[in-house]
# Entry
Amino acid sequence: MTFQQHTTVLAGDAPGQSTTLYWYTAGPEDAPTKVHLQAAMHADEQPGTMALHHLLPMLRDADAAGRLKARFVVFPSVNPLGLATRVLRRHIGRYDLETGVNFNRRWPDLYPQIAEAIAGKLTDDQRTNLGTIRTAVGTWLDQQRPATAAQRLRLAILKSAHNADIVLDLHCDDESLKHIFTSPDLMPGLQDLADRMQVAATLTAEDSGGGSFDEVLPNLYRKAQRANPGFPIPMGAETATLEYRGQADTHDAMGREDAQGLHDFFAGRGLIDATVPDATPAPGPTPFEATEVLRADRPGLLAYRVGLGDRVKKGDVVADIIAMDGPDAFLGRNPLRAGTDGIILSRASAKYAVVGSSVAKIVGTEILPARAGGYLLED
Ligand SMILES: [Zn+2]
# Structure
């Protein structure tokens, strides 16, 4: 039996305060593949926690039967700091209340930290080079002296993830269909995951501009490849942000289905010894720059004219914004129109909007000039 619960106690920022991070491991420690799974880095996003709640017994049973062929490290609720921030009976799980920093932004750019350490050590063997890079990152992580609880948490997560082959970060949207964010160079490699999850879309970006967790390792390997063109360096980790519908979609039935999808993905990869049915193909990847984040151009009350999954044309009305001030207050409606052809992937659950509120994500196929090379995230 390798299935085991672990706890890591992280010192807090206030005297006497500490936080306990719970995590699990399963599968042979010396397995050739390591999988790092985590949910609720945005601590107010629970569907992933529900999915991992249902996946853990599957891993425990497979472990007991000797069917795990990879080392699994699972953080069902990876951000206990974010769990603790409740204000005026509301849970603030997305941002560090002390600094305002989004928990899934500003993750480190690792390549510059290890460039010197790997110089002169690369060979013509890619496995060796991968090992050299991972060792250098591990050494750098060991040298870090985090000053705050938030930094200690980030370091603990990176120490687990940095040498993993598959890193899946489970999130959710506001009100949404399932989708994946990943790097373009990891597709179509991760299409089997998209199929097993039955996502509506896979959105790719090399750099969304925010330093998201799932971009840390692809960035590291991509930069290592570009800086050392004479040496074979693999993309050493398949990483993705998995968006499991909307925040309210935390239910046993969905969690069970999502856990089964992950189980079948791992089984399909030979990481769990189990026979699984073929997956139904999901749509292929599209550049995130082709997804419009439609924002309110005025304050008011949103009256949607579209539902999730609806296909819209450029110029179609996505929602009316009911005026809440001026001569037309509570009578007038102003249409907010789609800026591209595509599918409605997400909507806002809160219908009171201010200027700039995100109203919908529309997954199109054509790169939008306003998005190209810009900051892609909603924040
Ligand atoms: Zn999130």
Remarks:
- The radius of gyration is 22 Å.
- The domain at 288-363 is CATH 2.40.50.100 (OB fold (Dihydrolipoamide Acetyltransferase, E2P)).
- The longest strand covers residues 18-26.
